[in-house]
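REQUEST FORM: STRUCTURE PREDICTION
Request ID: SP-0412
Submitted by: Lab K.M.
Chain count: 1
Length (residues): 186
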Amino acid sequence: MSNNMALMVVAAVIVLGAIVIVSLMARRRHSAHLRDQFGPEYDRTVHEKGSRRRAERELSARDHRVKQLSIRPLAPSERSRYTELWHAQQARFVDNPEAAVTDADHLVEEVMRVRGYPVGEFEQNAADISVDHPQVVEEYRAGHDIAVRHRDGRASTEDLRHAMLHYRRLFEDLLREGPALSEARS
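STATUS: Completed
RESULT:
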């Protein structure tokens, strides 16, 4: 009887050990997937949240939220129209940098809305964009930060030039048909 009991205890320990190992491997795979999907945004979120677990929960929630949206690429005619509007904003910068940056911010939001992202509070916009455009979401944050500083009277013309560059990188990525969106959705 005691041999059978000992075998059952050993078997239970082995099964529990296997469960723990499988669980740890699944967690590592999930972490690696999020790190790959979100790129630099993963590290920024870990730093912001103060723990990897909270950050991963946040990033998973973002991913789930955005997968529920009907995000679509722009039609060629829309892409062409927005490209022309962007070029007009860039040209406008020479004569009126302040208005050009403000309008660039609005143009980025308009493209987001047309693509299917719900546009509202900036932090939610950035979180949504981070799912499909993780390499340029920091550009969005930097451009927006300069636009806010401009509204408070704390941005120079050189700062505004940098804001336009930041917005342009995000804008170009939003207009792109594909790799960023399709890679993130796969």
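NOTES: The two ends are 54 Å apart (CA to CA).
Reviewed by: T.R.
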